[in-house]
# Entry
Amino acid sequence: EADIYQTPRYLVIGTGKKITLECSQTMGHDKMYWYQQDPGMELHLIHYSYGVNSTEKGDLSSESTVSRIRTEHFPLTLESARPSHTSQYLCASSRTGALGTEAFFGQGTRLTVV
Amino acid sequence: QKEVEQDPGPLSVPEGAIVSLNCTYSNSAFQYFMWYRQYSRKGPELLMYTYSSGNKEDGRFTAQVDKSSKYISLFIRDSQPSDSATYLCAMRPGGSYIPTFGRGTSLIVHP
# Structure
């Protein structure tokens, strides 16, 4: 079982609030990712990091920001939540290498903005 | 046209059936192919990964890649109700660690 943890699992928050979704992994993986997933739809990459102090935006435009100060920690922040941010957010990690480097996912955070 | 196409289903089968799940893709640069299983309200769980064309077997699961047809499959033998989940295919080029996902196929195995 993958050792990657997301908190909270569920969050209901009002419009305009600032929120941080936490993601930590204990596998020593250098690469970490945030995906957004709506019901019945593909996973869309919103942010990724290839190491400490390295962050990039993904394919899906997002108003969120991320930081990578420690290898094991990759939090995602929304400065001002809106109902359009309602979705499931999935964190993943992987390691550098040739094979066996595929991503492991956390259990997800289901965010509802009211 | 999406890079990865996957029929969302649902696919409903009786217990014990052989299940075939498929994805097609358009990017010939894809070299690594993965299958994830996702239970309701959970994160995706890596089931199998393969490199380039060929077959790979793991217990009741067999992953098959046909690069000439840009077609990948996941076969599940002796399907069980506990196999009921959404199965996502994913793939990536050799020079990238970021996979492109299909939208997933919902599988229902009824007793």
In short: The mean pLDDT of chain A is 92. The radius of gyration of chain A is 13 Å. The CA atoms of residues 40 and 88 of chain A lie 11 Å apart. Chain A is about 0% helix and 50% strand.
